[in-house]
Amino acid sequence: MYESLLNFPGGLLAEFERLQQELQQEFANPGRPGSIRALASGAFPALNVGSSPSAIEIYAFAPGLDASKLDVQIDHGLLSISGERESALPQDNGTLSTYANERFAGPFKRTVSLPGDADPEKVQAHYRNGVLHITVARQESAQPKRIDIQ
Amino acid sequence: MTDKQDKAAVRRSESADELQTLLPAVDVFEDKDGILLLVDMPGVPKDKLELRIDNDTLLIEGNIAPDTPENMQAVYAEVRLSRYRRAFSLSSDLDTARIDAQLRDGVLNLRIPKHAYAQPRKIEVKVA
């Protein structure tokens, strides 16, 4: 009964649990790489960046998008991902109640600066399960090479 | 350390893992026919998604499928865990047997209909 009065899906206790989890996620993840540019938490889409000897891997967690409407550009060593996510709010015919509206809606743009040896000519992007995975190859001349001793 | 202590330590770390989950963003809408629940779970394929209903509690869990090439090192990470988890308590007017679930592009779309008897209806007043 109280759930419906307070508009918390799952009740007040679940709401506290959610707050606690959010705090934990903010502060209690030592050991993994943190933010180099202090970004407001909850920016959309969330980005993970990885590095391997042959490429730079960028993962954008952008669920529910039309891949054809995603715009990925590289300009002067900056990779930008932009697009727009439509609101999921159904049409209100007078009986609609909204209990939670946490999912991002609206236009977005995120930028990653690429290292100097990134090759803007060799970029691949795949969108799968709501994750945009961009692979930017490193220039071949910059890749580690074994030198034969004669 | 004895075996027993080892096991206890393992159990503790397992429960810590269970605590450390990502909280997916949700939208919850209700109309006269039922509830529409949208859950953002990017990176979760269909076979790694788990939906359970237990005593009127709806539990949504999913694992992000690893898609990382070998010898990749993380440089920067905003998504630092690989498991999503969120639970909701459902009320008795919802028909849990007829839940319709779809997962598309990392968005879980759950339609939870109301029992027929719980749907609003107009009561006619008869003139005596």
From TrEMBL, chain A:
Classification via CDD domains: ACD_sHsps-like (cd06464)
InterPro entries recorded: A-crystallin/Hsp20_dom, HSP20-like_chaperone, Small_HSP
Domain SHSP: 38-150
Pfam families: HSP20 (PF00011)
Family: Belongs to the small heat shock protein (HSP20) family.
PANTHER family, per the entry: HEAT-SHOCK PROTEIN 20 FAMILY MEMBER
Official protein name in the record: Hsp20/alpha crystallin family protein
Organism of origin: Pseudomonas aestuarii
Taxonomic lineage: Bacteria, Pseudomonadati, Pseudomonadota, Gammaproteobacteria, Pseudomonadales
TrEMBL record, chain B:
PROSITE patterns: SHSP
InterPro entries, per the entry: A-crystallin/Hsp20_dom, HSP20-like_chaperone, HSP21-like
Key words, A-Z: Stress response
CDD domains: ACD_sHsps-like
Keyword NADP annotated: no
Domain of life: Bacteria
Gene3D superfamilies per the UniProt record, alphabetical: 2.60.40.790
SUPFAM superfamilies the record matches: HSP20-like chaperones (SSF49764)
Signal peptide segment: none
Keyword Disulfide bond belongs to the record: no
Residues annotated as domain SHSP: 17-128
Family assignment from sequence similarity: Belongs to the small heat shock protein (HSP20) family.
Name the UniProt record assigns to this protein: Hsp20/alpha crystallin family protein
Source organism per UniProt: Pseudomonas aestuarii
Lineage of origin: Bacteria, Pseudomonadati, Pseudomonadota, Gammaproteobacteria, Pseudomonadales
